[in-house]
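Weekly structure sync, notes
Attendees: PL, DS, HV (note-taker this week)

Item 1: histidine kinase
DS walked through the input record. Source organism listed as Clostridium ljungdahlii. Sequence as pasted into the shared doc:
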Amino acid sequence: MKNIWIVTTFLSLFMLVMLIFYHLYYRMNIKHITKQLKEIMNIKDTNELLTVVVKQRDIGELVNQLNNLIGDIRMSRIKIKRLNRNFRQSITNISHDLRTPLTTASGYVQMLQTNVTEEEYQEYLAIILERQNMVKILLEQLFEYVRIESGDITYEHVPIDAKKVLVDTLAMYYDDFYKKGQEPTVHLPEKPCIIQGDEQAVKRIFSNILFNAIVHGNGGYCFKIHEADSSYIFTFSNLSEPMTRDDLDYIFERSYTKDKSRNKKTTGLGLTIAREITGWLNGTIEASYDDGKFSISILLPKI
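Item 1 (cont.): predicted structure, written out as tokens:
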């Protein structure tokens, strides 16, 4: 009996000591983690993660979860920082894009107030109207982009003839091609190209791409529709200055423009809007450059 009592007492003391050590290590880990958390959260640019003083299963699981959370917070900070930088750049670009035609128009208005010939009057008036129209286009792009980003716009999914939409949109830009001395080559199938979509949305896609081609293209315009098994492919091509892989990768990004001087009268939002709307219509859009020719291809599912 005495031996049993001794063993029992020894085991009890051993368990008590183990509990005391476990409690001490537990407190040490908590204090260590708390100190690390304060340091990590106060330092913006750090890749440090939480560690433990002594391995304990429950504390280790807690630290793993906290490290995952820290990683998510860091990624969120990076995204917010990038978004803020892009937003500031977008505001700068848009301000420049709007200010340029307005400043030009203002200058010509002042010139109209001086003694000018009838020929000069008509010339200056035409320039003012052209700049006014440019501001209207830029504001429409900006307004539509904001509506798309905020989710404050919906599109129908009804049967429409995309070929007719393309023809109507091309007619809108006839004068622009005429002024550039260019006559586009157009290849269209004989039958209607029926897709499930929104007529105004598809027209906006085509319009933005055509506008981009007129502003940035160097001629050689070719627009065609190709019928695939389950879709129609709309291709817009034109001669272009050399483009790099980076240009093609970022060309649909918000406010991206290859023209670094930003003297091409564009917000850089046109192709971004085209991409967003294409996605809404369950289509895809991509850009390519080959042998001096830049192309944008849109794939829209057919009925």
